Amino acid sequence: MKVKLSTAVKAALKKGKPVVALESTIIAHGMPYPQNLEMARKVEQIIMDEGAVPATIAIIDGELRAGLSAQELEGFAKNGPSIMKVSTRDIPYVVARNITGATTVATTMRLADMAGISVFATGGMGGVHRGAERTFDISADLSEFAQSNVAVVTAGAKAILDLALTLEVLETLGVPVVGYGTDEFPAFYSRSSGHKVPMRLDTPKDVAKLMRAKWLLGLKGGVVVANPIPAQAEILAEEIEPVILRALNAAKRTNITGKDTTPYLLKAISDATQGRSLSANIALVENNARLAAAIAIAYSQ
Ligand code: PSU
Ligand code: MN
After folding, report:
1. Cβ(221) to ligand 1 under 6 A?
2. pTM, 2 dp
3. Per the domain annotation, does 263 fall within a domain?
4. CB neighbours of 42 closer than 8 A, spacing ≥ 6?
5. Contact 134, 169 (CB under 8 A)
6. Residue 221 near residue 227, CB atoms below 8 Å
7. Rounded to an integer, what distance in angstroms lies between the CA atom of residue 269 and that of residue 248?
8. Which residues are catalytic?
9. Is residue 169 one of the residues assigned to a domain?
10. How far is the CA of 15 from the centre of ligand 1 (A)?
11. How far apart are CA 22 and CA 211, in angstroms?
């Protein structure tokens, strides 16, 4: 089975031109309408302005897709949470039953790899949830980094997670975690987390070199490119942490588990900050798209 490519994505890949994959779960489950649609359009525009081709990835009527039409993008934004959130374990079910699904970071990485797309921009990757020693809630995004040969530009990992444990699991899985212009692992809404990254690079060209080195060595799997949120959009950790703790408590009280956890927390935090966390989230996705395009361009040269 192949990923069906849009005309633009197909032409770019054929000529070895830079392509940047984008996920659809962030549209359907990560943000409310209409901000999600504005974000999805803007991010595609940023990638085109930088000189690369955007490839938003999704599954439509059971068909694996890279590169959506304007109408399809709008459908994901408008139908939001009523669309299935598809992690890697769900792919066979969705395909076999011709279902339409939004792809998480894990699933988007897998389909990007299948399509031959090496760079992907998201907001913040999934990771080890706080309290995972009880719940075992560890995002499939992490295991996918051991599988799919894709560099993912992410604003660290979401601050709702346990960042120390997330970094430990990435180390175990053999995944390079690159601080882009930083020595610290960024914490999604905040630029710093207090956790050091194992390596730092400062230019798209150097990231492209690391990607090439990894895959030429036959080292399977992805690369985390941890790109801090722009300073003017950040919410300081001490300010957002109490809000996160309240959201985590509310999730526990209402028995939110499994794949509902991340969308629930993002919404609760956005409600509690009157949308300030949503603005921060949008700013960091745009920032990641810009860097991903530059890396894709460097990698294609
Ligand atoms: N980044 C964001 N918003 C999001 C996500 C990432 O800024 O909503 C999504 C991605 O699709 C990621 C998912 O894969 O959150 C993580 O979900 P889980 O913790 O259930 O694996
Ligand atoms: Mn989970």
Report:
1. no
2. 0.98
3. no
4. 282, 286
5. no
6. no
7. 10
8. 23, 158
9. yes
10. 31
11. 18
Angle CA 203–286–163, to nearest 5? 75
In a domain, 267, yes or no: no
Q: Which atom of ligand 1 is nearest to the CA of 258?
A: 20
Task: Indicate whether residue 6 lines ligand 1 (CB < 6 A).
Answer: no
State the pLDDT at residue 1. Answer: 87
Decide whether any atom of ligand 1 lies within 6 Å of the 281 Cβ.
Answer: yes
Give the count of beta carbons closer than 10 Å to the beta carbon of residue 7. Answer: 8
Is 80 touching ligand 1 by the criterion CB < 6 Å? Answer: no
- What string of DSSP letters covers 84-104? EEE-GGGHHHHHHTT--EEE-
**How many Å apart are CA 16 and CA 103, to the nearest integer?**
25
Q: DSSP per residue over 24-53, as a string? A: SHHHHTSS-TTHHHHHHHHHHHHHHHHT-E
Q: Take atom 9 of ligand 1 and give the residue whose Cα is closest.
A: 26
For residue 180, what is the domain's CATH number?
A: 3.40.1790.10
R_g of the chain computed on alpha carbons:
17
| Cα 21 to ligand 2 centre (Å) | 22
What is the spatial distance between Cα 131 and Cα 147, in angstroms, rounded to a whole number? 25
For residue 127, the ligand 1 atom closest to its alpha carbon is 19
- 218, amino acid identity: G
Ligand with an atom nearest the CA of residue 277: 1
- In this structure, which ligand is nearest to the CA of 166? 1
**pLDDT given at position 48:** 98
Range of the domain at 21: 4-238+274-300
Q: What parts of the chain have a pLDDT lower than 50?
A: none
